[in-house]
Specification:
Layout lengths: L6 H30 L5 E2 L12 E6 L5 H16 L5 E6 L6 H13 L4 E4 L8 H9 L3 E5 L5 H6 L6 E3 L2 H14 L5 E6 L5 H17 L2 E7 L4 H14 L5 E4 L2 H13 L7 E3 L5 H8 L6 E3 L2 H20 L9 E2 L3 E3 L1 H6 L1
Parallel strand pairs: 2-3, 2-4, 4-5, 5-6, 6-12, 7-8, 7-9, 9-10
Antiparallel strand pairs: 1-3, 11-13
Helix pairs in contact: 2-11, 3-4, 6-7, 8-9
Length: 344
């Protein structure tokens, strides 16, 4: 055994180590903060290495800054809590609806972590498909919710992914029909979602079909990327360029909120009708206040649950060696107006 150092040397050694440890600790804490700031995932899952044999399901959504997806996450977490003996859940979301690369990375991270299933609301209908193909090749069950994956790209990648979600075109047409039946004028504008998203394309078609049937003219149709601030800017420009606009059809409620602000800034509150899609709580209040005419409820609190249940069904079929394939599942979408809110 080596002799102990003299007390003075020992004190110097200890102080030096303490200072170094303190600097390392600060750096580690800073690094942890930076890493945590770049992810928006939460987990109720446990590792299989810990002896857990329940299936692990990863829910991958779009922006949690959008109330629709935060509601979706809460619904999924409540379902897992009620069925904790059946499966574990990992919840993920991106910060920006347009951050497709981050969502691709989340798919890869979930596959690497060993999840059994991925339930995904893709930010882009095409770009996510190759990553999901790799997930399927790794043995992961994949279920598509909210925004349908592109059929042509799925065929190119030689995979089939079941879609669990509403008929967005039919839902948007219902909202458009209600606007047409209660219209104040003939000229309208549309705020589209991200144009590469299938649900944005379908809602646009639904709005267009309703306006065509009613003989109403669409004088402007532009994308506002699903975002409230962007919608405010785009709608303000529309109203300035086309003062004859009597209504704005927004492909989601966040954009409808942006349209409300634009209409107010233009001094046309009460003149320009607004409809949306999603039925978030802020829009319910706006409908009651007369600022929004109608929206579509695709039951965001249950949409992920429908997808999770489909994934669990497929996993159960695989374990029982029966037919493991599942078909598309159409989920409900309902018209929400001041009258339906009163009934609720």
């Amino acid at each position: 055994m080596l002799p102990s150092p003299p007390p003075r040397i020992k004190r110097m050694f200890t102080a030096t180590n303490f200072a170094t440890a303190k600097r390392v600790g600060c750096f580690t804490a800073l690094l942890s903060l930076l890493v945590s700031g770049c992810t928006s995932s939460s987990s109720t899952s446990q590792s299989k290495d810990d002896g857990n044999t329940k299936p692990r399901v990863a829910l991958i959504m779009k922006s949690l800054a959008n109330e629709f997806f935060s509601t979706m996450a809460k619904g999924a977490e409540s379902h897992q809590a009620e069925n904790a003996d059946q499966y574990d859940l990992v919840v993920n979301g991106i910060k920006d609806e347009r951050d497709v690369s981050r969502q691709v990375a989340l798919v890869e991270e979930m596959v690497a972590s060993g999840v059994d299933a991925i339930v995904i609301a893709p930010a882009d209908s095409k770009v996510l498909v190759p990553a999901l193909r790799r997930a399927i090749e790794a043995g992961v069950t994949v279920v598509n919710i909210d925004n349908r994956l592109d059929a042509e790209v799925l065929q190119q990648e030689n995979i089939s992914v079941p879609f669990v979600g509403p008929d967005n075109m039919a839902g948007a047409k219902t909202v458009g029909n209600y606007l047409a039946a209660n219209r104040k004028g003939e000229k309208v504008a549309i705020l589209e979602g991200i144009r590469t998203s299938f649900n944005a394309q379908q809602r646009l078609k639904g709005f267009e079909a309703a306006m065509k049937d009613a003989g109403m003219e669409i004088v402007s149709s532009q994308s506002a990327d699903w975002e409230m601030s962007r919608a405010n800017t785009v709608a303000s420009s529309m109203l300035s360029e086309h003062p004859e606009i009597s209504a704005i059809l927004a492909a989601n409620d966040s954009m409808a909120l942006g349209a409300i602000a634009a209409v107010k800034s233009a001094g046309r509150a009460g003149e320009v009708q607004i409809v949306g899609f999603d039925n978030i709580s802020a829009i319910q209040q706006a409908i009651q206040d007369g600022k929004v005419l109608a929206t579509a409820d695709q039951h965001g609190d249950q949409l992920a649950v429908f997808g999770i249940e489909a994934a669990l069904k497929q996993l159960g079929s695989e374990n029982s060696e029966s037919d493991s394939s599942i078909e598309d599942v159409e989920t409900p979408v309902d018209l929400i107006t001041s009258e339906t809110l009163v009934k609720e």
